[in-house]
Amino acid sequence: MKSNLQVTIESHRFVPRDIIGGDAALDFINTVTGRDRSPRDWLDRYTALLEWAALVRLLPENILRALAKKAKSEPTSAAAALARAKMFRETLFALITGIVSGSAPPKPTLALLREHWIAGINAHDLRFDDGRVVAELRNDAVNFDLIASLIAYRMVEHVLTLPTDRLRICHGPNCSWVFIDSSKAGRRRWCDMTVCGNAAKSRRFHARLRQRRK
Ligand SMILES: [Zn+2]
Q1: Environment of ion ligand 1 (residues, CB < 5 A)
Q2: Is residue 93 within 8 Å of residue 29, measured between CB atoms?
Q3: CA pair distance 74, 72, nearest whole angstrom
Q4: Residue pLDDT, tens place only, 109-147
Q5: Does 212 have pLDDT greater than 90?
Q6: Which of 16, 101, 120, 196 has CB atoms 3.0–4.6 Å from 190's, for a disulfide?
Q7: Residues 102, 6, 32, 47, CA torsion sign
Q8: CA nearest 147: which of 49, 76, 44?
Q9: How confident is the model at residue 180 (pLDDT cuts 50, 70, 90)?
Q10: 40 Cβ partners below 8 Å, 6+ apart?
Q11: What would the mean pLDDT of 86-101 be, rounded to a whole number?
Q12: What is the pLDDT of residues 152-173, one digit of tens each?
């Protein structure tokens, strides 16, 4: 987020349309929209983070329920964990924008990612099932930072292993959502063609019209 921009924190009902990143780790970054102009942060309380996690199926329902219960009885700790998650989210946005522009991430960025990633690994058990070894979330991994830990785990294991030229930042006005371009041609520029693609196209159209009228 540009530091001089005022961030509005608002209540938001997460819907499937908000999930365009190609991986939950990127969709987590997209819980802030409009970073380039008028940033709006959709995580207004810890339970919003749980609602988002439910939509992207980051956690099984029993753990989500346990976290919701815990947040009710320990609101101060939940709020502190939300603040940590948001700080981590902004670090991840800076990491992705850095990668897209080809710059090396600062050491504290990688240190914070590593810290959450290790917590994410610790939240898993390895089990032998149906002839293969699978990593599975532990049932006792109920702590407020679990979502940030799993985001870090996904970021390191699934997103940062992809070809970097497939990581994108939406070109749409007042958007800046990040996503994986998994299109065959590798030319996806918008988070969503019907939202940002059309907005940008109509802006270009009107700009051309204005020029012609001069
Ligand atoms: Zn967009």
Answers
A1: 170, 172, 175, 177, 191, 196
A2: yes
A3: 6
A4: 999 999 999 999 999 999 999 999 999 999 888 999 999
A5: no
A6: 196
A7: positive
A8: 49
A9: very high
A10: 7, 8, 9, 10, 32, 33, 34
A11: 97
A12: 999 999 999 999 999 999 989 9
Please identify which residue in the block is written with the tokens 């294991």: 157
Centre of ligand 1 from the C-alpha of residue 138, in Å: 35
Please name the residues in contact with 77: beta carbons below 8 A apart, sequence gap of 6 or more. 144
Looking at the whole model, is its pTM more than 0.85? yes
Residue at token pair 């409009």: 34
Residue 75 tokens, joined? 């609101």
Ligand 1 centre from 30 Cα, in Å?
A: 10
Q: Is the dihedral of CA 88, 161, 146, 31 positive or negative?
A: positive
Contact 189, 177 (CB under 8 A): no
Token pair for 125: 């058990």
